[in-house]
Amino acid sequence: MSEYENILQQIRPFGPFQVRLFVLVSFFETPLAWAMLVPIFTAANPGFFCSGINLSFNSSLDDDVCERNKTTCPSLSANTEFTSIVTEWHLICDLKYVGELITSLQMVGVGIGAFITGQLADIFGRKKILFAEYTLLIIFWFSTAFAESWQVYAALRVIVGALVGGCLVVNFVLPLEFVTPRWRTFCGCIGFWAVGLMTLALWAYFIRDWRKLNIAMSCSSIVLLALWWLIDESPRWLLIKGHFKEAERIIIKAAHFNKRPVPNCDGLCQFVKKEQFLREDRKKYSYYHLFSSFRLAIGTSICMFGWFVSSAVYYGHNFNSKNLAGNRYLNVFLSGIVEIPALLLVVLINNRLGRRYTSALFMLISGLASFSILIVDLSSQCYS
């Protein structure tokens, strides 16, 4: 919609109004990171011991040995450093898979939520869906603290994952529709997700009970609902849906905020009406059309595989940080810090190299780094 982008150029493509909206929308990323990554701590195993017998229970034990020791143990107790779903429901020995299973089910929910929310946001608007799903997220996230079994907790985490995935989709798209293409890389990369990861470590450090941790984080996230009165709907979406007056009101508001003359929107209005007329004769598009030709199917498959690999590596490393040596809280905090220079680097080189070369370069570096972990691990086993 070049006419709309011309309007954005007139009122400033990334002026104070867009910066303000970008920051406000990005605030959502911090509690979304908490909700997504809290299993790093709530699914961790602090270790168990048998009272009166010199036996310990950890993930390195063989299943049969672990189960025999558990059977002969008169009183099984968990270390008191912190509580988690593992200590709550004794998810060890034959149940040690449950923690990872719940995390995997949560990520399935993320995919489902992202898939559905894209369509919902196109129908009902970005702002409404963002706040509706965020409200539901707080409710179900809060409810996880009162689960009485790991099965109920798992079901709630699937819903939480779906709502986080949905919020992330809208959270990503909304600021992009207020800026010109030049600023899309910046708005798409920079945000407060890394801040959420760092502050998650602080939450978990000071609140060691997994139920209280979920209650505290979910309740503190309610404050962002007040942003409903500060965040505007996407003018681009409003124009596509024919809500010209509402879109014009937001454009005028942005022009005043950016201290720019109010642009003449008559040409944009005529363009939108023409597009609506032509759209009636065009066929409707769906996800199916991404695979409607061989070339489209190849391109779509490559992009989807890239997204899958990137997500698997990123969340795999994060969720596995609870098993790293050293201080678990410091490890998570540092994993958030290292994201900041990485994101800044993407912003600096993406518009110069282009998206294909930038993606290929970073995936190559990530792949080599991940593969080196295997080499180091195998080498350490050979020398041990």
Automatic annotation (TrEMBL):
Domain of life: Eukaryota
InterPro entries: MFS_dom (IPR020846), MFS_sugar_transport-like (IPR005828), MFS_trans_sf (IPR036259), Sugar_transporter_CS (IPR005829)
GO CC annotation terms, alphabetical: membrane
Transmembrane segments: 21-41, 97-117, 129-147, 153-174, 186-207, 213-231, 287-309, 329-349, 361-380
Pfam families named in the record: Sugar_tr
UniProt entry keywords in alphabetical sequence: Membrane, Transmembrane, Transmembrane helix
Subcellular location: Membrane
UniProt KW Transmembrane keyword: yes
Membrane topology: Multi-pass membrane protein
Tagged with keyword Transferase: no
GO molecular function ontology, one term from the record: transmembrane transporter activity
Residue span(s) of domain Major facilitator superfamily (MFS) profile: 40-384
The protein's name in its UniProt record: Solute carrier family 22 member 15-like
